[in-house]
Design brief:
This protein is α/β, with parallel strands linked by helices. The chain contains 16 helices and 20 strands. It has 2 domains: 259 residues, Aldehyde Dehydrogenase, Chain A, domain 1 (3-Layer(aba) Sandwich); 183 residues, Aldehyde Dehydrogenase, Chain A, domain 2 (3-Layer(aba) Sandwich), CATH 3.40.309.10. The structure holds NADP nicotinamide-adenine-dinucleotide phosphate (NAP) and magnesium ion.
Length: 501
């Protein structure tokens, strides 16, 4: 029997010892839990122009593959210049009535889109996961419900546009050209369509080549919602299709979400024209942990910040800035946490990290990680089995990173975290702002005053406090510096889709 003195001794010895580690690994193997809803995929997807699905004029199609197993999912139409032109003409024609329709009537259409999307939520979630590689728990619990939320929110605005700019009247711009990326295909579509439609604009939109399926499936919903023909036109294709959309003479405004590199090409080609522009571009966010932060919660925030959607997130917390006094502790906790992340089949409900979106993107991640090793940073990757087929990458943490390293400066757009340290608040601000980007940041501290100071000093469109990657349709999102300009969401997002009269 242990004596009181033994117990006391044991208690004293436990102080300062590292926390007990839960060993999962093979002992805790999960049974497979695949999502089985039917994504109702078609063998071939045509363009959605003038309210109908039509074959591309040149008859060209390309394959969309499932990055989780490299199998072909469907053929997607490749829109050429003639198709993009037909889409703009259809949109211009539709604008004559849609632009003048009373807001409360437009609201009904947008509301119906949201409801129909909710009705088909599981089908859309499975299609999104198969086409893009993201874990089903994310497409099911985040992408699809958030896309519906954007339509609901903007349906609510459509008959209240007199309050968008108090004291002023607003009017739609006309036809808007939009191009979106592959990381949140359906959600980006909702971010773009909902405010444009609520304001009375008509749209020509191009999804990304690797993830066009849910965009074209949304065309089916637009038909079912009775949206007048031509109000939304969906032209799938490659970069050439995107360029044709951005440069079309009928476009009164262009809205682009994608890389800073392509954003600059578009801005150069549109310089000197009358077109309005919004640019949602890349990022290299700092997630900043002060020593008074609740560390276990912060570790969850770090994991969510960089491993959500395999790190294919423009606002990913890809640079971890941690106060020196707690750096070792945070890094140790982080490594333990990462060991139990489940990487693999995106359709499995227990998967935390799914497939990398494309072979090309996997190559970019591998190149930048190799540069990190070469430049002298210390690499940590948990030992986890990756599926034999498909594009996968282990969650990766680099410590001993210097500000000059490529992994600290360039957007990796993958599950790779670079850890840097700081001593004072001033140093944290200087390091966080020392980047060409300015999309988002995170601050973890117990002090409200410090949160307010940091959110003022950080040059980032969004600053999260004691949380990360939180989104809401009411909250404007957008960048500073090379992360772009213009806002999406909230009243500010609507202002980017109207003229003041
Ligand atoms: P990307 O290469 O710039 O592509 C974005 C879109 O532009 C795609 O639909 C692409 O078509 C199209 N495109 C390519 N070249 C074009 C051209 N010359 N003219 C017009 N369109 C063209 O970017 P990505 O790799 O798909 O997406 C990742 C990037 O998006 C990251 O940098 C990320 O940070 C950024 N992003 C930003 C936000 C934000 O809100 N700030 C949100 C999400 C993502 P193809 O797919 O056919 O090449
Ligand atoms: Mg695909």
């Amino acid at each position: 029997m242990a004596t009181l003195t033994d117990k006391k001794r044991a208690k004293t010895q436990s102080i300062g010892r590292p926390a007990a580690e839960l060993i999962f690994g093979d002992l805790w193997a999960f049974d497979p839990a695949p999502e089985t809803a039917d994504p109702k995929l078609k063998a071939r997807y045509d363009l959605f122009i003038g309210g109908k699905f039509v074959a591309p004029a040149a008859g060209k199609y390309f394959d969309s593959i499932n990055p989780a197993n490299e199998t072909k999912l469907a053929e997607i139409a490749h829109a050429g210049v003639a198709d993009v032109d037909a889409a703009f003409v259809a949109a211009q024609k539709a604008f004559v009535t849609w632009g003048k329709m009373p807001g409360k009537e437009r609201a009904k259409h947008i509301y119906r889109i949201a409801r129909l999307l909710q009705d088909r939520a599981r089908e859309f979630a499975v299609a999104e996961t198969m086409d893009g590689g993201k874990p089903i728990k994310e497409s099911r619990d985040f992408d699809v419900p958030m896309a519906a939320a954007h339509f609901f929110y903007h349906a609510g605005w459509a008959d209240k546009l007199d309050y968008v700019a108090p004291g002023r009247k607003v009017a739609p711009l006309g036809v808007v050209g939009q191009v979106i990326p592959w990381n949140f295909p359906l959600l980006m579509m909702a971010w773009k369509l909902a405010p444009a439609l609520a304001m009375g604009n008509c749209v020509v939109i191009k999804p990304a080549e690797t993830t066009s399926i849910t965009a074209l499936k949304l065309g089916e919903i637009l038909q079912d919602a009775g949206l007048p023909a031509g109000v939304v036109n969906i032209v799938s294709g490659f970069g050439d299709t995107g360029a044709a959309v951005m440069n079309h003479p009928i476009a009164a405004k262009v809205a682009f979400t994608g890389s800073t590199e392509v954003g600059k090409i578009i801005m150069r080609s549109l310089a000197g024209t009358e077109k309005k522009m919004t640019m949602e571009l890349g990022g290299k966010a700092a997630n900043i942990i002060f020593d008074d932060a609740p560390l276990d919660q912060a570790v969850e925030g770090i994991v969510n910040g960089i491993f959500f959607n395999q790190g294919h997130v423009c606002c990913a917390g890809s640079r971890l800035l941690v106060q020196e006094s707690v750096a070792d502790q945070v890094l140790a906790k982080l490594k333990q946490r990462i060991k139990v992340l489940r990487v693999g089949d995106p359709l499995d409900k227990n998967t935390d990290l799914g497939a990398i979106n494309s072979k090309e993107q996997l190559g970019t991640i591998q190149r930048l990680v190799a540069a990190g090793v070469k430049e002298g940073a210390t690499l940590f990757q948990p030992e986890c089995k990756l599926p034999a087929k498909g594009y996968y990458f282990r969650p990766t943490v680099f410590s001993d990173v210097a500000m000059s390293h490529r992994i600290a400066r360039e957007e990796i757009f993958g599950p790779v975290l670079s850890v840097l340290t700081f001593r004072t608040l001033e140093e944290a601000v200087e390091k966080a702002n020392n980047t060409a980007y300015g999309l988002s940041a995170g601050v973890w501290t117990d002090k409200g005053s410090r949160i307010l100071k940091m959110s003022t000093e950080l040059k980032a469109g969004v600053v999260w406090a004691n949380t990360y990657n939180k989104f809401d349709p009411t909250s404007p999102f957008g960048g500073y510096k090379e992360s772009g300009f213009g806002r999406e969401g909230g009243r500010q997002g609507l202002l980017d889709y109207c003229k003041l009269i």
